[in-house]
Specification:
The complex is a heterodimer of chains A (286) and B (335). With 286 residues, chain A is mainly alpha-helical. Helices cover 76% and strands 0% of the residues of chain A. Chain B has two domains: 2-68, no CATH class; 86-334, MetI-like fold (Orthogonal Bundle), CATH 1.10.3720. Chain B is 73% helix and 0% strand. Chain B has helices at residues 2-18, 31-68, 86-91, 95-126, 133-145, 148-158, 165-172, 189-214, 218-226, 231-259, 263-268, 280-290, 294-318, 321-324, 327-334. In chain B, α4 runs parallel beside α8 (189-214), α4 packs antiparallel against α10 and α12 packs antiparallel against α13. The chains are: A mainly alpha (286), B mainly alpha (335).
């Protein structure tokens, strides 16, 4: 109460002094985090000779050919396109099916509910690598190799556990009184889900969508095995092939890395607010 | 458990009865049964799409891996050469697999003892009013969204022995002796890998914690401050207990991720040098896709799954139990 009316200058100074170590720690960690990224960005503007003679300094001259030659090639844009299609498809499928299931698992009382939930949480223990061989055989049987669905469907399936666990947690936090009120006003179960729960859980949906997009975008082993032809190669597969092809031209690989990071970082810059603001559900209980 | 969970969905029922005219008196005793049947039906309808997707693409392949693990199979045609538990007994005489277990344990230990406390410290720091905190949050989380392949290729070049950035930096400050091997050395590969994992993954846990911290009402801290609680006491008696569910989930995910670690290691070292960074998942892919011992590889995947499963069940039974109860009981337990 006393602080609100007028803060004495000495107090401000003391507070600033107290927070100084905090800033130092954050700054040191920040340097540790940003150095690899900045180094990559700058190195992409050097020639490979410059990289070995001048590893730390700014490029002189700035070489843009690494970037322009990549941006001029169809292969890079094709990778961006196929990564996008696959990520959007897998995310829509995961979030839609997971939201329905999480709703039932969070707010219905039915026999076997915990069993079903446990089954999904067990899915956390199925990494792609473990199931990749039988999955490969299954996809071959259904003729889904070299087909984007061959990656979208498994990605959506493997994304379900995390999505359901997170959404169920959020759905449970929404007070029961709200559902009572909605039911009193003649809302059906699905109506409550669609018109009240989902809008309230929009931040949570944002969170799980971002997680699903990121995990699909970064998926490596599955697209590597499913796509034998470069047509549908996603960005991670593209990088790996590129690295094999230009192993000695380090500067070019750095440039490719920068271009590959750019969409992910740009997406993150746009979706960041949603991710962080997503967890303010605590406010709804007030 | 059942008590608290069933009471919530039936609460609307009580309210509805009170509404005049909406419930015919004759239907009174039968309604709960119908209602329960309706609940059950809608639960089925709501869970079926997810269950179908999950069953067909996750459970069926896993079941098939389990089946194949009892065969000596090269991966072509159908498996015919039954070996019973041969693949499993072989596992526990395989020094590479036993090494996988040891290295997995090391990575889990590192993560729980260093990475998560570090993430928590950063979350607590960034939960305050600080200049530029949005920038720090964004920066710390950013590596998490980069693919393992990008991270792997990037750090492979940074830690390239001799002319990578790491050795150049050490050389520039006169500490040449410290670097040199990184991913190429048997003793240095795991610490280097852990450094990269921390760079990439701590931001994820930090974000979980920040989300949890935002759910803690500011009034609690204010009240504690008025009562004379210091920074540490507020952290110990407000932050930690109220963040406990988040911490438990985060530790759980960290262990599971460590057990299943694959992409990052595969891109950087493919398990080398001389198996020094090999994980269970790496061994499995090595045996399965490089040496065409699909039966043995499947046995590894089954054991990997069983380890995760036993851990998860024990964890849920003993650690997460309180979190899966109703919100009211959890609040009561915490008080």
């Amino acid at each position: 109460m006393s602080g609100a009316t007028g803060v004495p200058k000495s107090l401000v100074r003391r507070r600033r002094l107290r927070t100084l170590p905090v800033y130092v720690v954050l700054w040191v960690v920040g340097v540790f985090m940003v150095t690899p990224l900045l180094y990559t960005l700058v190195s992409g503007f050097k020639s490979t000779d410059q990289l070995s003679s001048n590893p730390f300094g700014l490029p002189s001259p700035w070489v843009t050919s690494n970037y322009t030659s990549l941006l001029g090639s169809g292969a890079f844009w094709r990778s961006v396109g196929s990564s996008t299609v696959i990520a959007v498809g897998a995310t829509l499928l995961t979030v839609a099916t997971a939201a329905l299931a999480a709703f039932a698992l969070a707010r219905f009382a039915f026999r076997g509910r915990e069993l079903v939930f446990t089954l999904f949480t067990m899915g956390l223990m199925f990494p792609f690598a473990v199931a990749i061989l039988p999955l490969f055989i299954l996809l071959r049987t259904f003729g889904l190799l070299d087909n984007p669905w061959g990656v979208i469907l498994p990605e959506a399936a493997f994304g379900l556990p995390v999505t359901i666990i997170i959404l169920r947690g959020f759905f449970r936090e929404i007070p029961g009184e709200l559902e009572e009120a909605a039911t009193l006003d003649g809302c059906s179960r699905f109506g409550f889900f669609w018109r009240i729960l989902l809008p309230l859980a929009r931040p949570a949906l944002g969170t799980v969508s971002v997680l699903a997009i990121v995990s699909s975008w970064n998926q490596f082993l599955l697209p590597l095995l499913v796509f034998s032809e470069p047509t549908w190669w996603t960005i991670p597969v593209g990088i790996q092939q590129f690295q094999g092809q230009y192993a000695s031209d380090v500067a070019r690989i750095f440039a490719y890395l920068v271009l590959a990071m750019a969409p992910a970082l740009a997406f993150y810059a746009v979706a960041e607010r949603q991710l962080i603001g997503g967890i303010t559900l605590g406010a709804t209980k007030g | 458990m059942t008590h608290s969970t069933t009471s919530t969905p039936y609460a609307p029922e009580l309210g509805k009865v009170a509404e005049p005219g909406s419930v015919p008196p004759a239907a009174g005793p039968r309604r709960p049964v119908l209602r329960r049947l309706g609940d059950w039906l809608s639960a089925v309808v709501f869970t079926v799409p997810a269950l179908a997707l999950f069953g067909l693409l996750v459970l069926v392949p896993m079941g098939y891996a389990f089946y194949v693990s009892f065969f000596d199979w090269g991966g072509f045609g159908s498996p015919t050469d039954v070996t019973g538990f041969g693949n499993y007994t072989r596992l526990f005489e395989d020094p590479v697999f036993l090494g996988d277990l040891w290295r997995g344990g090391l990575l889990i230990g590192f993560s729980i003892a260093l990475q998560l406390p570090f993430a928590l410290a950063m979350a607590v720091l960034l939960n305050q009013e600080l200049r530029g905190r949005a920038v720090y949050r964004m920066l710390f989380f950013a590596p998490y969204i980069l693919s393992e392949v990008i991270t792997g290729v990037l750090f492979g070049m940074i830690f390239a022995p001799g002319d990578g950035l790491a050795d150049r930096l050490l050389g520039a400050v006169g500490l040449d002796g410290l670097g040199g091997e990184w991913f190429a050395g048997r003793d240095t590969v795991l610490p280097t890998l852990f450094l990269v994992m921390t760079w990439k993954y701590f931001g994820f846990h930090m974000m979980l914690y920040l989300a949890g911290l935002q759910g803690i009402p500011a009034e609690l801290y204010e009240a504690a401050r008025i009562d004379g609680a210091g920074t540490w006491q507020r952290f110990r008696h407000i932050t930690l207990p109220l963040l406990a569910p988040t911490l438990r989930i985060s530790a759980f995910l960290s262990v599971i991720f460590s057990i299943q670690l694959f992409d990052l290691v595969w891109v950087i070292t493919t398990g080398g040098p001389d198996h020094a960074s090999e994980t269970m998942a790496i061994s499995m892919v090595q045996y399965g896709f490089k040496r065409y011992q699909m039966g043995y590889a499947s046995a590894i995947s089954v054991v990997m799954f069983l380890i995760s499963l036993v851990f998860a069940l024990a964890y849920q039974r003993f650690v997460l139990r309180r979190d899966t109860e109703g919100a009211l009981t959890t609040m009561r337990a915490n008080r």
